[in-house]
Automatic annotation (TrEMBL), chains A, B, C, D:
Name of the protein described by the UniProt record: Chorismate synthase
Enzyme class: lyase
Organism taxonomic ancestry: Bacteria, Bacillati, Bacillota, Tissierellia, Tissierellales
Reactions accelerated catalytically: 5-O-(1-carboxyvinyl)-3-phosphoshikimate = chorismate + phosphate
Family: Belongs to the chorismate synthase family.
Record Pfam families: Chorismate_synt
Superkingdom, taxonomy of origin: Bacteria
């Protein structure tokens, strides 16, 4: 199974937390698009660590180096590749987890899958750091989509169950050496009706596959999602009407998607983000080498909450899915 | 975009509600597996309509005819194709929706996508009837997985928001000419640790892509899902311990998946099913030809609730995803 | 590995020589195209057996039944599936090959791959009969391409090494209980410049993958192919010039393809077709069950030469490849 | 269309002749394989320019930098990425071709495809230089295949039509400011019977798709290829016999492949390599900007013949195809 997304656009993500570099190749970008590098960097900075009191102190500049696919700042049709060097690496922090997997991380499942050859340092290819290349790709897609008046935004709905003062929960968690998760909503405006496909390549399927590519996401719902399951058909029906000659729905319980295809209303979805599993508190775990239970105490620099930094990642994943869906609207006639 | 699922196994679903037949081709099935046809039929009957007072009275026998891929009842390595003839078709029921899209259905989004050439009769390729070929494929996968002690089960958690007397809600909706949705939980036992992949081809990504192939599903969550977003890291951590020499987790908040890879615990996920959009009540809609608002009154035979019939579909989708993930564990060494 | 072709269009072929039916599903066809059924049948008849003195006497009508994807004769956007029932089956002809593989056929390689569970009757999924569904798909693609002034033709260059009287060689082979192969040329007119891709998804790569899907083809060359390897650069250069404002090349040694991308000249390629391995003469083989050498004498009805019937198959494969390449020219901008 | 190869292994190639770097990502490599870096470098050196009197004087060291996927020299299961910096770039050599396409190169077809935004410098992504990342991937696959006793070799059959003194033709072409092509044979020993698939994913299809990824190849034939088309069935039949308990064929006219599946004999194929289109002689071409015919005189450093350097590329492509085919032999049972 590959770290490649897309049926038409192909986004290939590579790198580990502590490898020489992380990066992304994007195949099938249209030729001739000029990337606004400043805007892209601003987008990447929203995700980068070390920029607020709520995030890990591991500060990476996250400045992509474009090594292929551009002439100047303009796409040339060849696969675009950007890399970010991993400069601020303290590998010794992770020595202990070679033998003792961190609960809630991929350490153990990766250990089994790769037969002990996994790059355990910093979570390897499973690290949240791999959302940086995703954001490079997504940031470019967002710029191209904006040309067509498609806009993607996200916001925090709640953190640690607190919708009114979400950041307060982060502070509390920090003080406790604990962590919190939250719920994020993402909206896509301007996507015309008729995009997507029934059954397996619908808007829900494609966005889900992209969004679960972000570490820590454990649920997704479209429109009213789990809440719609409590409604009656007469309450959830999204009736049609004409407004200025355009067909619209009075409500948007279906989140802009019917039968896997956009209906011209905003695409709306929410994702559940789990609390960062890295906490300062001691945790029970096991030792592979000793074959016995043990207690793990993880040092290192970790976010008490990844929800604020996950916003651009969700937007990037959504943009990537929408981009692929739009490319799927090819037609020889 | 294709109605094909899988990176390794390829499940190609075809047919419309009112075409000559619906069916499925499965490429890459192992050769030499003997399908228990009686067991498969029992599985299909759980999905088939007309078998309880809660479902549509359109009774289709849903008996697959295997037209390729078998010698006797045994797979021969060639693509397996099964079809079900559409026999009980009353197309005139659907004449009105050619011009007036039903709210909550794919009528309108399909109309735009296919430029008016869509097969609107009975929802065409978007019909819930297309879950029958999904269940043929899934039913076969389930049998092969059972050989390896992998078991998939699902159950209704609630209908219409009622967890204690879910069927009562269906009866109420029937009496009101209304409909209800619900929440279904699915569990997969026996999947060994190490299956899946980081980033885009993980267990969550693959199950999601499969499950959103079922019409009416609007949300999915793994393990504690949206509830985990309200917990602290210290509460949601799934600590490890040894039990009889095996590594297990004390809790299963992550639903058996870490970093996209199974950890040997049960895979657990829940899906939100929306209320059937077909209701007897009048609904506001529009007329394409008149370019004005109108009122739609749908006759026809419809389920007040598809949740009971969706159970085997969810199991089928899960089996298909797990099967594909297992095939992805190929290795040349 | 699947019997599915295409990155954008998806052509899924199923069936065995002696299964209930053979058929094809095509996903991603444009909606609203009206198939000329009479024209399609004429195309299929060029491939069908039993229509000339040179072909097998197994006469199959090869009339496709369209079971999905159409409303009337018009595509509706849903996957199109057509099947052909296998009616004229004499399975006992093939009993001997269950144990004794026919030289030059796939009997032995399939036997190993499928562990003895292969459908050996009539070559199973490896039978030349499976080119019938390929021709259904190709025949439809050809019609859609013709709308855009793209025309595909093929012709016999030689049979049994005889370019002047190719059919004479077939007659000789028939009289001798032997068989002959030949070389076929295919040309594609009207494909605009700029279609295809460098490296792995070029015109050569895509046509090759499609054409080697036809049993019996052992070589393919584009433009001057193997002959160009004997020329000098100064002789093979395809210089440019303007003609009526259009850029053309003086020669077409590259067969209309440079860097995997069409240059607006005719696409030209040739394929080598091996002699039918089924011959009346005795052949040396082995017995699986006895573990010893034996002599095989195949009865049954066979073509002394498949070259004439392969012409529509090559055109179908080429059309499929070109269709997929054209769909790949999608662009979100 | 993407520069990605493989259904199971995914090889993503990126870079242009004059971009910052060229490189390759390989997804799905088995974890735990230790790459012999010295051996890999020797393999790459066979392809590298500037190492014999017959090749271009552009000397690139072609030393890959591994930026992901390894821990030490051992694969860790994460996508492996290697890049080669483009250091010896003289872009001004190519200024003229921005407006005047070189005959026989992809300049013109790329110009149309990418709407004038192509990276024309040195052929961009179409450059033969992109076979360096292919060889990195192929060199790794070859090492893994060798572990399993699969060996891949290639040799020159003829250059400029001269089978007896092939290098003499290169010298002649050099002296004349001309170029020559040739024919290369590749053999794969040790591939067990049963690998591959009927119809579209057979050994021929997969090798062809890989091999046409090498610029300049215009034909491929398996076994006797075009020569088999001149034989009779009784002459080309590859009869079976037992040798030391193993089933073998007396001849190998089919190049080890029947029905797309290996039969345990050596896989043998030949490819036709066209003469380098870059020659010192003047060539007729056109000017885009002037819209008129012109004469092109290309300076720059070019090979009079790429056949010697293409050998490792063909081996790399073959190894990649075989690797993917072997990974396709996955089976859940």
């Amino acid at each position: 199974m590959a770290s490649i997304y897309g049926d038409f656009i192909k986004v290939s993500i590579f790198g580990q937390s502590h490898s020489e570099a992380i990066g992304v190749s994007i195949h099938n970008l249209p030729a001739g698009f000029e990337i606004d590098m400043e805007k892209l960097q601003s987008f990447l900075n929203r995700r980068a660590p070390g920029r607020s009191k709520y995030t890990t102190s591991r500060r990476e500049e996250d400045i992509p180096e474009f090594i292929s696919g551009l002439v100047g700042n303009r796409t040339c049709g060849a696969p675009l590749t950007a890399i970010i060097r991993n400069t601020n690496i303290i590998s010794k922090d992770y020595d202990v987890i070679k033998d003792v997997p961190r609960p809630g991380h991929a350490d153990y499942s990766a250990h089994i899958k790769y037969g002990g050859y996994e790059d355990y340092r910093g979570g390897g290819h499973f690290s949240g750091r791999l959302t940086a290349p995703l954001c490079i790709a997504g940031g470019i897609f967002i710029q191209i989509l904006e040309e067509q008046k498609i806009e993607i935004n996200s916001k925090i709905l709640e953190i640690g169950g607190n919708a009114k003062e979400p950041y307060l929960e982060i502070e509390r968690a920090m003080n406790d050496g604990d962590s919190v998760g939250g719920i994020v909503q993402c909206g896509i405006k301007g996507l015309r009706a008729g995009i997507g496909s029934p059954i397996f390549d619908g808007v829900e399927n494609k966005i889900s596959q992209a969004v679960f590519g972000i570490p820590g996401i454990k649920g997704i719902e479209f429109g009213e999602g789990f809440a719609i399951a409590k409604l009656k058909g007469s309450e959830s029906k999204d009736e049609y009407y004409y407004e200025d000659g355009e067909i619209k729905t009075k409500t948007n319980n279906n989140g802009g998607i019917l039968g896997g295809i956009s209906n011209g209303m905003d695409i709306v979805f929410k994702v559940a983000v789990k609390p960062t599993p890295s906490i300062s508190k001691e945790q029970d775990s096991i030792s592979y080498s000793k074959g016995e239970n043990t207690v793990l105490s993880v040092k290192g620099r970790h976010d008490p909450c990844i929800v604020p930094r996950i916003l651009p990642c969700v937007e990037a994943a959504a943009a990537m899915a929408i981009f692929d869906l739009l490319m799927g609207e090819c037609n020889v006639r």
